[in-house]
Design brief:
Helix content is 26%, strand content 35%. The protein is an alpha/beta fold and 144 residues long. The longest helix is centred in the middle third of the chain and has 24 residues.
Length: 144
């Protein structure tokens, strides 16, 4: 497979806030310094949120592809995630991303397959494989 490129443009607007866009997408996203830092802003996506979201959303999209290929019958996928920012040797690092995926199945007979698909998704998530942060997954399978 040849290389793919994903274009993202950032434009500063004011204070510690900018706007993120892509020539490939119609939606724009405000991005700012998080409120934990000087002059940080509340209620706006930060690079730290976007980093965490990249890992979490990659798990989901990887899960959806593997579930389809595995013919897993599920009724819902959701994932809470938490990115951990720490200062290590004088530098700020996103040291860990904790993923808490919940897969809802209708039949108990699908539980083992759902667990395997989640584990395979974690191993094959290209964003997780691209970062040096620790990725911790705490999966849950629900039966409705």
């Amino acid at each position: 497979m040849e290389a793919h490129y994903y274009n993202v443009d950032i434009e500063w607007k004011n204070d510690r806030k900018g706007e993120m866009s892509s020539p490939e997408l119609s939606q724009k996203i405000e991005v700012a310094t998080p409120p934990q830092f000087p002059k940080g802003m509340e209620d706006i996506w930060s690079p730290e949120h976007l980093f965490t979201a990249a890992v979490s959303s990659c798990l989901m999209t990887t899960f959806l592809a593997i579930a389809e290929n595995s013919k897993l019958e599920f009724s819902n996928f959701e994932c809470k995630s938490k990115g951990k920012l720490e200062q290590v040797e004088g530098k700020f690092l996103m040291t860990e991303v904790i993923l808490e995926p919940i897969v809802t199945i209708k039949n108990e007979s699908e539980r083992e397959k759902a667990e395997k698909v989640l584990q395979k998704s974690e191993v094959n998530c290209l964003i997780s494989n691209s970062v040096k942060s620790k990725i911790t997954m705490i999966p849950q399978i629900k039966l409705i």
